[in-house]
Design goal:
Elements (H helix, E strand, L loop, with lengths): L2 H23 L9 E8 L15 E9 L6 E3 L6 E4 L3 E5 L6 E3 L5 E2 L5 E2 L5 E6 L12 E2 L14 E7 L27 E8 L5 E12 L2 E8 L2 E2 L2 E2 L2 E2 L3 E4 L14 E6 L13 E7 L11 E7 L7 E6 L4 E6 L4 E11 L7 E3 L3 E3 L8 E4 L7 E4 L1 E3 L5 H33 L3
Parallel strand pairs: 11-20
Antiparallel strand pairs: 1-2, 3-29, 4-28, 5-6, 5-9, 5-24, 7-8, 9-10, 9-24, 11-21, 12-13, 13-14, 14-15, 14-18, 16-17, 19-20, 22-23, 23-24, 24-27, 25-26
Amino acid sequence: MSFQQGLSGLNASSKNLEVIGNNIANANTYGSKVARAEFAAVYATALNGSGTNSVGIGTTLQAVAQQFTQGNVSTTENPLDLAINGGGFFQVTDGHSPISYTRNGQFKLDRDGYLVNNAQARLLGYAADANGVIQPGASVPLRLPTTGIEPKPTSRVDLEFNLDSRVAVTGPAAPAPPVIDFADASTYNNARSLTIYDEKGQEVAVSLYYQKAGNDQWNVFATANGSSIGGTPGAPVPITTLQFPANGAAPTLPAGPVALTGVEPVPNAQGAQIVPFGSLTFDFSGTTQFGSAFAVTDMRQDGHSAGQLSSIAVEADGVIMARYSNGQSKPAGQIELANFRNPQGLQPLADNAWARTNASGDPMVGVAGDGSLGVLQAGALEDSNVDLTGELVNMITAQRIYQANAQTIKTQDQVLQTLVNLR
């Protein structure tokens, strides 16, 4: 026995305590991964080869291996907090150093609208064009839009409702022309309203009036901001006539959507001038005429007003949805994740990040949910996978081993002292 075995044991135990201490220190660090000190025995090599009776000369720290097991996912109140449930890393860059990789999803918006972590490194992903279409390819720092969404004029209205076949006829008998008084409910059977939008995003109140003209036949009149669509002031004409089959199913007439041109509503309630509609199409294919009460089951139009960005939400596949004050939403980008064939080969960096190395291999990039990549959970963070109880037990064991190695040095010292005292 020599001092070297005990000295190497002291060094190894000291390194083990450092690793354990670092684990304990990061027990509350989001996205942190527990590390494990791995040791190897050391033997002296003889000139003629190793013998069968070789005695080791101690131990050495062979590696500090991080364990990339999944940590618990804790919910938060911040929609920009992101947790990866499964494999993969977020990619962040400061614009100068190589890309680094992290599991810590604590992201925020900087003054320029970029998604950054606490080290001000920007999150990478795919940008979206003005129409909200994701542009996959080279990843770029993700930046949220600051401008609002432009208005879109209504061009199509889809209607789905049932007209009661049991009600009385309110329109004049054919061949007399249809007559209606919008202020007199006795001249029509039912009416409903919806809001459409002009090119400026201004609201236009459209009312549809349904007048039974005969057996299985209904006239449809319409107004926009109180102004009749079709005909002349004081003499409105139907925008279409619905002709139903005997069983009351979808109408046989009109044969397709009804296209109207030159719709010029009067100014709205605030007096704003409305931009005339170049074309406005009504689709009545979802209409029925059964022996049940009048009921509208769906009224949809494809326009919307202008809106400002009100909030964002990150979906499970990493798509960042921008939500606007007018109720519209569209993608603003998509987060790109990376994974490695050998994550333990990554080099640990400060700020809870890792760098690729030759041992880790090149990153395999993609979107959340693809291949070996996990899914994202917004409003949540991944806790450290450090088992605090286990680390405290390991610390006690490492302390005892340190004391035992110190005892071997003490024993060797006593042996040498005995040799010195032989004379």
